[in-house]
Design brief:
The complex is a heterodimer. By secondary structure, chain A is α+β, with helices and mostly antiparallel strands. Chain A is built from 4 helices and 2 strands; from the N terminus they run αααββα. Classes of the chains: A alpha+beta, B mainly alpha.
Chain lengths: ~90, ~210
């Protein structure tokens, strides 16, 4: 097993989260494992994504789920290109 | 009206390179709006400076060839164009180097000192600017090599070759200024053209990707 820790940029983390949510309505724990984040960090990113209108928060009784918006789907496309561009120029 | 073939070729390459630099700068701006990554600002302003220098020089060369009949006036105009371009290039690589440093999450304060000589002032300034620009470029290239060894991405390799071509172009320019060699000057122009062609191909393939 490699001991190297790969640095992920903020944008790469946002894309990872959105890609998990894009699979369907998702619970925070599923996103946490899918995007490989701690609960506290995930909450900050989820708040940001909701504020930006990239995901919607759905509250059903005690349960919270997240659903991706059209804007969120477009963001994934744009962000993938940006990450590709940054990687090409050795900035990611 | 007869145009100097070397100046004409350089002006055409500069115009093309300026267009590519503008394209890369614009895409860096678009990327910054999405990523909010500060290193993209270095790339954006750096390529904008490159574009300014290249276009200003191309225009000055064209105007000089078209307007001046006296060799002295032509030379003065060409030197002014080269000075503007060298200054812009220097700033461009400095800003890019700072941007790349931010991508490493470290900070540096580059220091530049220029010494003057009354006798060969123009030659020394030109040589120094090419030299300092080359140092900044070398720094950028080292970071890109490290990134390429990490991700083995074809596009990163393409950008690496582009920056290496730019560095080689500067080396050839230094040689041409030192020995007043027209052949090395032309090779330098060709290498610069190749570098910007590779930048164009890289950004185009990123834009085309779904």
């Amino acid at each position: 097993m490699s001991s190297r820790i790969k640095y992920r940029s903020r944008l790469a983390i946002l894309v990872d989260i959105l890609e998990v949510i894009a699979e369907g309505e998702t619970k925070p724990t599923r996103i946490m494992y899918g995007a490989n984040l701690s609960y506290d960090r995930l909450q900050k990113y989820l708040d940001y994504l909701v504020r930006m209108g990239l995901i919607n928060e759905i509250k059903d009784n005690e349960e919270v789920r997240y659903r991706i918006t059209e804007k969120g789907l477009q963001f994934i496309k744009d962000a993938r290109r940006v990450l590709e561009f940054m990687r090409a120029f050795g900035l990611e | 009206m007869e145009y100097n073939p070397v100046l004409l070729a350089e002006s055409i390459v500069d115009m093309f390179s300026g267009f590519v630099a503008m394209f890369v700068s614009f895409y860096s701006y678009k990327s910054y709006r999405i990523s909010k990554d500060i290193s993209m600002i270095g790339l954006m302003i750096g390529f904008a400076f490159l574009m300014l220098g290249l276009v200003a020089r191309a225009l000055l060369f064209i105007i000089a060839m078209d307007t001046f009949s006296k060799p002295g006036a032509l030379l003065a105009s060409v030197m002014l164009g080269k000075l503007i371009s060298d200054m812009s290039t220097l700033f461009a690589y400095l800003l890019m180097a700072i941007g790349y440093t931010f991508s490493l999450r470290k900070k540096i304060i580059p220091a530049i000192s220029i010494t003057f000589s009354k006798v060969f002032l123009e030659k020394i300034i030109s040589w120094l600017m090419e030299f300092v620009s080359s140092l900044f470029l070398l720094y950028i290239i080292i970071i890109i090599i490290a990134r390429y060894l990490e991700n083995r991405d074809t596009l990163t390799f393409q950008v690496l070759i582009a920056f290496l071509s730019l560095l080689l172009a500067h080396v050839f320019m230094i040689v041409s200024v030192s020995f007043l060699s027209i052949i090395t000057y032309m090779i330098g122009i060709f290498l610069r053209f190749l570098a910007f062609l590779l930048f164009l191909l890289t950004v185009s393939s990123v834009v085309k990707k779904e």
